[in-house]
Amino acid sequence: MLRLVLRSIRNLLCVPLLPLWAIARWLSRPKGRWIVVRLKPRLVEARQPLPWLRRLLDAGSIRRTSSLAAVRRLADYAISDSRIDGVAFVLPPLHAGWSVSVGLREQILRLRDEGKGTAVLLPRGGGHRALYVASAAERIYLAPQATITLLGLSAQSHYVKPLLDRVGVEVEPFARKEYKTAAERLSRDSMSEPQREQLQALIDGHTTAFLDALSERTGTAPEETRTLFDAGVFRGQRAIEARLADALAYEDELPDKLGVDAKKGIIEGDRYLRFKEAKLFRPLRRPPYIAVVAIKGAISESGAPTARRGSVVAALRHARQDRRALGVLLWVDSPGGSAEASDLIHREVVRVKEKKPVVAYFGEVAASGGYYVAAHANAIVAQPLGLTGSIGVVSARLLASRLLDRVGIRTEVLRTGPHADVFSPHRPLTDEERSLMNRELDAFYDSFVALVADGRGRPVEDIEPLARGRVWLAADAHHHGLVDELGGMDAALEQLKDRIDVPAPLRERLRPMMVASYRLEPPPPAAQLGLDGSVFESLRDLALLLSEGPAVLYHAISIPKIR
What we know:
The protein has 563 residues and is of the alpha/beta class.
């Protein structure tokens, strides 16, 4: 009620300003023919709402981030604007995953398909992802001293067992099944064959998509395009000769290359979007909307708010109870985590689905627990180069008896049962205790497979061969029926709108709105230490595995980044 009163007063105060606002808007209207979108290196799918204190503290980080959702809205306006001839993107080396890169490439292709000119400037050159995106444009411009680097895709795994052996620590993994390799970097000194098989399949899938995109631009067969990896580095005129760029240009020369005046022919993308979305009056009542619930990062009982079980459950309950929320988009970008937390989130998703449709959108990775929480959604949408699956279970036990002996610590145990200290690191497991652990994991694995089979509406016998802990490229997961549609968040929103039973005009007006329940809490210990990259990632994984004690995890933490 208070909101209604305040907005009514605000709108009434704005009525006298309407003529001035109309004149100012007419005078400030963008007059250029080409929109220039200057992207930041960090490209994300969409920005999440933050409390005012976080916005204040993270203001610099927010300014250094570009949103793919904003690019989509800008493309929508540009396509319907007859005064706009084209859109040019200034693309720095991207700090973004392959799924977001696919989304950006799709927007450039959409502009081309709608008859708009497209161009990409690489002021600092770029690597595979930058060229994958740029290859969708009609023209690519490269700064004269910039370099395009095409060395071929790779993924590195660092095995820290020798380091742990030196300090007297062992990690005994318990996993279901052979592809559930989440703890092998801690328990092995080399890559297992199942890990090598699934990782090679992921690299091959990314390489095929990249070569197909590049071959479409260069007009050569993918096998011939692959020979570019042999040369590896292309600078200046050499990039033009290889048909990786059309011309050399500095950033201030871009208007000349586009054939427009530098002052009157160019519209900055941020200004154009602000102009299109500016409104003098505010709606008195909050309109119906699509609730977006984000699950990002490792799923746990603590840690980052976007994957903390309590925050996600609170957001889902709010979306279920809010009559204005006509559907829920579950945005998952998580490798999984705690089995109990994943199950509680899944339960809330099922409860929401009883009242309104739920569609899951998978980001860079939605594997293991990340897949578990979305298994019963009405539909699952993912970008073809995202990672998903990993339907399996893992747990691990730490043995530090040698370390304790080395530092002079002796352990005395009083117990009321033979297995009371089973999870203590001072002694190894007995065969009977190992059987207990394996029995528990078998039960978790069987329930995971059965849950996915029920959610997908298929027999368990069909799902089990696709499970076994294997991580799939989303394109392959779609082929096997684990994903319903390939596409970006816009495709997921369309899937959801089609399932909402309202009149067509209202359906078209529905807009997504992030629903979040934030509480400022300190991050988990591994995040506080800033552990990131190479060996430190493995140590962070160890901290994650052990932070839940003996908990069983639906987790896929052993898949390295594909660069």
